[in-house]
Amino acid sequence: MLDVSPLANLVQELVMGDTVRVERPGADRVLDERTGQLVDAPRTLVYEGPGAMVGPGSQPIGRVLPTDLLEHVDDPKAGYKLLTPPQAPVPARDDYVTVTAVHQGGDQSLLNRDWRVARTGHGNTMVVVRMTWCDEIQPKTLAAP
């Protein structure tokens, strides 16, 4: 079997210059004793490390079915791709993704956006990079260029 780990390391160095965080939502809402309101349960950290968020490209991702966490049908044109090293944990559907740091000269507007995992990462016998499909949750106020 061909060892692709040197190629995976090269791709990580060339493409994954940002730091990404993947968090799993809590199962239920919890009571905030201070306010008396139900709030989202704390998220669980799944992964934080090298990665990249690639914007919508030429490949359509098809239709993604809505889940009970959403009040709307997913937009199949969203098509963002999260790239992580093969040794990173596989994100699950509905995990949250944020970019916590961008490489020098990188797109600073990535720091003000949140994504939701729409499909789990592809499984392959020889993995050079893990690709996970994501939808942008909502654009926040974007940083000035």
Features:
globular, 145 residues, 36% strand
Explain what the structure shows:
With 145 residues, this protein is mainly beta. The protein has one domain: Thrombin, subunit H. The protein is built from one helix and eight strands; from the N terminus they run H-E-E-E-E-E-E-E-E. The protein has a six-stranded antiparallel beta barrel. A hairpin with a 4-residue loop joins strand 2 (29-32) and strand 3 (37-40). The protein is globular. Residues 58-65 and 70-77 have low confidence and may be disordered.
Brief characterization of the structure:
With 145 residues, this protein is mainly beta.
Q: Shape from CA axes?
A: globular
What percent of the residues sit in helical stretches (DSSP H or I)? under 10%
Q: Give the oligomeric state.
A: single chain
Q: What's the number of structural domains?
A: 1
